[in-house]
Target: Proline--tRNA ligase
Amino acid sequence: MRLSRYFLPVLKENPAEAQIVSHRYMLRAGMIKQQTAGIYSWLPLGFKVLRKLENIVHEEQQRAGHIPLLMPTLQSADLWRESGRYDDYGEEMLRITDRHGRDMLYGPTNEEVITDIFRAHVSSYKDLPLTLYHIQWKFRDEIRPRFGVMRGREFFMKDGYTFDLTKEDALHAYNRHLVSYLRTYERMGLQALPMRADSGPIGGDDTHEFLVLADTGESEVFYDNAVTDIRLGAREIDYDDKPQCQSIMEEFTALYARTDETHDEALFNQIPEARRRSARGIEVGQIFYFGTKYSEPMGATVQGPDGKPVPVHMGSHGIGVSRLVGAIIEASHDDKGIIWPEGVTPFHCGIVNLKQGDEDVDAACNQIYAALRAVGLDPLYDDRKERAGGKFATMDLIGLPWRITVGPRGLKNGVVELTSRRTGESVEMSAEEAVKKVAEIYQPHHEASPHWEPMAKRSFHTWM
Ligand code: 5CA
Model:
C-alpha cells in the first residue's frame, strides 16, 4: 500500500475522551471511530489488525479440530425462554421487537442457538465429540462502556461450543481449548495467564479466564509469580492426545492464579511471600464447562451406546477478538505509539522516502516496495510529499515493527537504513540486504516470531 492512496486519518492531538493508552493510540492512529457509546467503526488500519487476529484464531481453532460456522447476530427470544435465561440475563441484553410484535434480541452469546442447531441435527453418540465455533459480533448493553474497544457494547467474539457424551470427554474438550488458547495468544505476541474465575451468567463450576497483565486492566488478580515463567513455545501438540492436553492444562493451572471473585486469602498466603502478586489484568478469553445446563432444558439428547437418550455434556469457550486489539497495544507500546508484534502487525514493514520527487530515491523505494511484495510481504510505503519528521512520527505512531528509510545521502553510499520499532536501533545496509533481512524476520520459526507463517503458506488463507 502506498500511503498517498490509503485512508489513514491520524490525529495530531490526544483525544480528550481516551483515558487509557490503547484507546488513545487507536484513535490517533486512525484505527477506529466511535459511532455512538461503545459502538465503533473499524477504519482500514484497525480493520486490518482485527482481521489478522481473526485469522490467527481461525487457524488455531481449526488446528485443534474445531469446526467453523456462522450464526446470526439476531436471535429469537423464544429460544432463551426455553433455557430460562431470557428473564435472568437482565439489562445487558438488547431486546428488540420486530414488526409482527415478536420478541428478538441481539445475541450477547450463543449457547441457545448452538444447542438448537445441535438438537435439530445430531441424534447419536457416534457423532460426538463435536466442537462448533464462530467469530461474530455480539452485543451487551454494558452500563459503562469505556476504554474504546476494551469494553464495548458491540464487540467481536470467538465463541466455541463443545458437545460430548461424558463429563470426561467434555473436560478433554475444555483442556483442548485451554491449550489452543495459549497457542493463540502466544502467536499474537501476548502472555495471557489462565486463572480460576467465576462463571457468571454462562454457568457451571469449571471455568478459567485468560488474563493479560496490565495496569489498565479491569480485573483484579492474584497469582504466584512463577506462573509468568511458563510458556507453551513451539512444542508439538496432538489435540487428540488426552493425557498431553491434560498435563499442559495442569502445568499452566497448578500454581495459584485467581481473579478476585474466586480469590482465597488463606491459599494465597501459602505462596512464598516473594512470589505473591496482586495486579490488574485484561480478560481476553474465558472457557467454561457447564455439563447439561442447556442440553437438559432444551432437549439436546443423543442416543447413547445402550440405546437410551442422554443429554450431552457441553462447554463454551470465548475469545474477545476486538478487545485483544486494545490488549496488545496495552502490552506493547511506548510514548511514541504502538509497537505491533510481528504476528499481528497491519503491515510488515514501512518504507520512508526522505526526498519524494528525487528520481533515484523514488526508484529505490519503488524497488524495495516491489521486492517486499514479491516475497509475500505487505509493506506500507510513505510516498507523500511531507517532511521527514512527520513521516517518522506517523510510522512510530502506527507501530510497524520494521522500517526501511531511503534518502539521497545514503543512496550515494549504496545504503538504506533498517530500523527496529521496538529497540529503535538502525542499521545501514544495501537495499537488497534490507529486504532479505525483513523477509527472514517473517519466515516461519524465526525466533522473533515462533509461530508466524508467511501469508503464501497459510492453509486457511480464505479468512484473510
Ligand atoms: N459464551 C461464553 C464463552 S463463548 C462467553 O460469552 N464468555 S464471556 O462472557 O467470557 O465472553 C468471552 C470474551 O469476550 C471475554 O473473555 C472478553 O474477552 C470478551 N468480552 C466480553 N464482554 C466484552 C465487551 N463488553 N467488550 C469487549 N469484549 C468483551
